[in-house]
């Protein structure tokens, strides 16, 4: 599984222990951020949703810079612009890839 995240590992100067520690932090913290983001989008709290989406994007970008991180940037942008419909649609479009990436990250801990 470390091979899947070889680019992330290279950014960490090959430190597998650090990659695993970061995987633990992300998989522990991300579910709460996702729930909070979903609630903020539902309640059209766009400033808060932008902050949560940005936080989630940062957490995941340690491991991946393409999908779903790029799509989370769209959520951030729409939420910052006050476009609740677009923010919600963009988040819905990347929910499955987010959860798939989190499963892959969690596998690093094993």
From TrEMBL:
The modification Phosphohistidine is found at residue 54. Transmembrane segments: none annotated. Gene3D superfamilies: HPT domain. Keywords: Phosphoprotein. Residues 15-110 form the HPt domain. The keyword Transmembrane does not apply. This is Hpt domain-containing protein. It comes from Neorhodopirellula lusitana. The lineage of its organism: Bacteria, Pseudomonadati, Planctomycetota, Planctomycetia, Pirellulales.
